């Protein structure tokens, strides 16, 4: 039997080729893998489309999508054609093969190797470069939409007299096209050169000519195109000087032409443009001359000119013309920069008024009366009392308040008695506090927060707690009836599935848990199995696909923070870092300020939004500052006011700045997305305010640009700085504060946003700045600056804080309050202009002694060198001014050193003696840090005073004794809120 190679016992086994079953399995797995990848891509696209459709902004999705697709295909195809055409042309122009050198013999192996695959290789190369170019072009969708929809600014730049829209809308697109042209040309040159080399058109070591005539002509034309593009670049660079940033006068944000730009760089760019055009013509001429000599000489001349004319000449002008007389040379250009910067940031109408810095009024009673008329001083700091809200109004562990609360205006006692500053926060969902975390609890049962909590900003109760105007669960108070459920909020960062068979936890009260089922049409319906599968893939949660908790009516809610939603429906806006809630027409609305920005405003200096909007609050609380697509800008407008309904998630965009050409451009690109300013309801208008981030940007610019003449700007003598927060050790800028107050030229208080300035490198006060923040008024947005005299030193915030801390009595009391596990926390240091002087007010909180939240214990006040540290604002003001506006001043705290008042009535006298003993006991307990003993002593003191008052009242009624002298008031030291309140009935 013949040997078949299988050994003595059987046929040879096949090795290395899988069986038909294995091949089928592998093919099936491959198909499934491809389908899985395709469905994953589809899931992302489909869920995005469903979300935009659910918020009624599908036009934003489609416009953006088709713009990206159009740019991708157009520029991808152009790049592929440019590279592919030049590879094809180089191959077609290849020389006939002749006697082979060693170099050509080596290359012939490569030519033979790729010959069967030439078409596929060409297709692969052009596809790769096309995909890369298309993806890059798709990222320029904003640039394209701004160019094609751009509207006129109606203003011209001072150098070239072109409309500003050329720099903001046109020039960025032209630069993109130029960059694309350079990339296509360079890739084409490389591809053509390699192809020519591979097929013998270019030779390195072979004898004879180094390039064929066809290769020379082909590459010369490509190089001519490159030099032509360089000529265009030189021409555009002329206009780019108007938006060029440079270091100038201790600032790295200077933008625009200076003397050397206008008199050296500008003519140099024009000369280089002409040289580049000539050089390009020399390259094109090689089609006829077939020599590289003239083009190489021309290109060398262009490079040499760029070094001498574009580099050396401007340096000579700067050294020998500008520096010897810089003030005179630069002044005209500084004036252009001053004017443009002030216009671009909306600070051109800021009024600067000289302010004395000290009062000339000697009647302190009048000054004391003026305080109440000048400002509603807010002693409840929204950046300190969040833990107090949390402790007193959280109600359930699965609720939480934001780290920083907000300040708004609401009618007093729910009546039309005027507005009062109100500290407000929402009781939002906190998944970390739910009893047990699992998928059902996290996404189906615990889905929303509940209710508004609000407190008066200008007062606290006797125990230092906020005076709530809206509280409890469900919330009750001055705000009336409104939808209290909070499905969309700043802390709501995960998805929820609502409206289906699984009931939600609504809230809990004494009768137990209440359940609820979502009624609105927000979110995306999950009844469709395709939708469920898409979200299971998009959220990497397979249970969405098969869970029985999802059924008819189930809807998925996501992208739930106000800033996320506004940024998603208006990706062309820059979003303010602080959204705030308001009760509007029976619903909780998040109000979000949004900006239009550009970095192409000629002559306007740039600022970095992330740095400018950072302060001590964003640093210590890890808050996100302004959300910016363009971090560096030189033009900003608060052009849009947006609202997000806390229950339905509905987003509305309102046109706020009706003159902003950038907003008009985007409204042309996305028609129907922004509603008219006239559609803002009266109730909503009452809660709109001037945004903090815009104010922080403007104050940073006004530190230098409050001056209007070039000489002062160049001298640097009037440069200010935003002071560091004196109550925070982070070393960051003091945040601006909302406050109802009136400036010297105002007749009544207005809701304002305020800040202070100090001289550069010093701590004394140089200016006070306020903007009218109350929307709907004629003065809204008006910036007022009170400039302090340079020959008089007025204490700045840091110096005032140091003065507070250096007062012996204050320092001793602060030391006592800081004993044990108690900590003192300083609130916002408010500054109020008053009769030529400046009134500083700072609330002081104490946290500890068994309490986990801060309570208002003291108020620091200083004015005209007088300082007070008392239990309440009224007491502190009375002490500083030495008079009470309406009542007899209460006796000052004597620290327990004076003998008790006397009375001829034995019962009254005994009660007074008991009061003095209780007071002394309380002071002793305070020194030891024994809060429990201190609380008991305070109760005894209240009880003794009550007995004295009742006994005296009875004696007066019977006529048996004369009135006693004044009764001692309770200690001005802190009283723990855990102590029970004294009984209202006499105990003796």
Question: Can you walk through the features of this model?
Answer:
- There is one protein chain.
- The protein is α+β, with helices and mostly antiparallel strands and 988 residues long.
- Among the domains are: 170 residues, no CATH class; 132 residues, no CATH class; 65 residues, no CATH class; 98 residues, no CATH class.
- It contains 27 helices and 35 strands.
- β6 and β7 form a beta hairpin.
- α2 packs antiparallel against α4, α5 crosses α19 and α6 packs antiparallel against α7.
- The longest helix has 35 residues.
Outline of the structure:
With 988 residues, the chain is α+β, with helices and mostly antiparallel strands. It has 27 helices and 35 strands.
Structural class: alpha+beta
Would you tell me the overall average pLDDT? Answer: 85
Helices, by number, come to: 27
Radius of gyration, in Å, reads 38 Å
Summarize the amount of helix as a percent range.
40-55%
Give me the count of strands.
Answer: 35
Measured between the Cα atoms of the first and last residue, the distance is 130 Å
Largest sheet: 7 strands, mixed
